[in-house]
Amino acid sequence: MMTRRRLEISRRQFLVAGSLSIGAAYLMPRSLFAQAGDLVGDALKASATAKIVVQTLRRNVSVLLGPGGNIAVLTGPDGKVVVDAEIVTTRPNVSAALASINSDPIKQLINTHWHFDHTGGNEWLHDAGACILAHENTREHLLVDTRVEGWKHTFPAAPAGAIPSTVFKDDYTLHANSTTLVLKHYEPAHTDSDISAYFAEADILHVGDTFWNRDYPFIDYSTGGSIDGQIRAAEANLAMATDKTIVISGHGAIGARADLVLFRDVLVEIRDKVAALKKQGRSLPEVIVAKPGARYDAEWGNLFMTPSAFLALVYQGV
Ligand SMILES: [Zn+2]
């Protein structure tokens, strides 16, 4: 039932979709534009005008909340270090939001994983002076055309300026702006390229798309993700956070450890229910009708993922 796996763009997030300005169209890569009409194309259009909110967190760390992945920003005399790069068409608004924090130049970009809503700004941020650092699988996926079956979209190889120049396998530690920034790779979870970024002195943990705050997650089976992997990463996040840790989700509001617990619990509950139904021989449409996530659907099923789209991803992995 491929039609049931279609992802739907939420009214909340992408109501701003409308006619493209000439400027935004100019910024949009031709190869992506050609596929417009799918979720990715619609997201590229809507993001050109979507608002970016700047939230100050703790010490010298802020976050930009926009239509794509949340961006962490560390400021100081060494220049800005940013974690994630949004959707390419947010460039004017992300650029303005970064400048509104202070005039520090942008020196370092870190990608939490390879997806277009976290690496879309790689090329322009590199042009603006940032070196790009990521897990080695992020580089591998960006170097070649990569299909995401769950979005029914093939992403063309990224331009040279968007490719991470430094990569690592297990972990990597950076020192900048009186901050120790510890990067750690997860076992395959949302993709096979996910990393966390922990700002040690500020006790702020950016976990990328291993955590969606009160939203069902997208899981990218095409590049190594799975529901079980997503749950293992949720457990790993619990081990890294204390009650004082500020947690930056990939999508949704800033959270705390209690939100990580809830996310893990919701995923486990729905995974177990779907697994039991599948074991009884129920088809995906039957599982969707059974509404195993009924308690959460109204709140959790309205960002990128409808309840049925999420159930399809769980069903695929159990
Ligand atoms: Zn993602």
Can you offer a commentary on this structure?
With 318 residues, the protein is an alpha/beta fold. The protein has one domain (2-317): Metallo-beta-lactamase, Chain A (4-Layer Sandwich), CATH 3.60.15. The protein has 13 helices and 14 strands. The strands form 3 sheets. A 7-stranded mixed β-sheet has the order 1-2-3-4-5-6-9. A 5-stranded mixed β-sheet has the order 10-11-12-13-14, with no helix packed on it. Helix 9 (227-240) runs antiparallel to helix 10. The radius of gyration is 19 Å and the shape is globular. The model is unreliable at 1-36 (pLDDT under 50). Zinc ion (ZN) binds at residues 113, 115, 190, 209.
Question: What's the total helix number?
Answer: 13
- Largest pleated sheet: 7 strands, mixed
Structural class: alpha/beta
Give the H and E element order: HHHHEEEEHEHHEHEEEEEEEHEHHHH
Helix content: 25-40%
- In terms of quaternary structure, the protein is single chain
Distance between the termini: 16 Å
The CATH topology turns out to be: Metallo-beta-lactamase, Chain A
CA-atom Rg in angstroms: 19 Å
CATH class: Alpha Beta
Structure ligands: zinc ion
Low-confidence runs (pLDDT<50, min 5 residues)? 1-36
CATH superfamily: Ribonuclease Z/Hydroxyacylglutathione hydrolase-like
What is the number of domains?
1
